[in-house]
Design goal:
Elements (H helix, E strand, L loop, with lengths): L11 H29 L4 H12 L3 E3 H7 L4 H13 L5 E5 L7 E5 L1 H22 L4 H21 L6
């Protein structure tokens, strides 16, 4: 039985279902690969994302800002940061914000920066190996199509945050 929008040559519903399936496979596979890399570097996904946030913010960020960025409570983020701080060597350190003594800053240590980069290098090595199997023109086409998809999708359906 044809799908609702499949009159004649119109295969929009089938294309949407196929794209959804492919995207789901990509996300699922990506999560498994990330988890494997995190585990190899003795990190949980939330711990890695704390390191990533710090790296993206020049190695320092208020604990409340990190919690907000990851939609977590300050208490949950404090627990994550304490575990990162307790690692040997410590991947982060905490200090009172000099401008606001009530606020705590989280600082990325050299060991934390290196751990973050090690995970990132491993992921990029896998991606480079996979892309190396394709001709340059196909790689550029894939990248272009993915960027177009995200551009159109994010413009048409922006994420509303509370």
């Amino acid at each position: 039985m044809p799908l609702a929008n499949e009159s004649g040559g119109d295969t929009l519903d089938r294309d949407a279902a196929e794209l959804w399936s492919a995207l789901f496979d990509i996300v699922s596979d990506g999560e498994k690969r990330l988890a494997s890399h995190f585990e190899a570097h003795q990190l949980t996904p939330p711990q890695f994302y704390v390191l990533k946030t710090l790296s993206e913010n020049d190695g320092a960020c208020r604990i409340g800002d990190i919690a907000q960025a990851h939609h977590l409570t300050r208490a949950t983020m404090t627990g994550l940061v304490k575990r990162l701080e307790a690692m040997a060597p410590p991947l982060v350190q905490r200090q009172r914000n000099p401008a606001d003594g009530r606020s705590v800053d989280v600082l990325l240590t050299d060991a934390g920066a290196e751990r973050f980069l090690a995970v990132q290098r491993g992921l990029m090595a896998q991606l480079r190996a996979a892309l190396a199997l394709l001709p340059a023109e196909e790689r550029r086409d894939i990248i272009s199509k993915v960027r177009l998809y995200f551009s159109v999708f994010s413009q048409q359906f922006p994420i509303e945050r509370a």
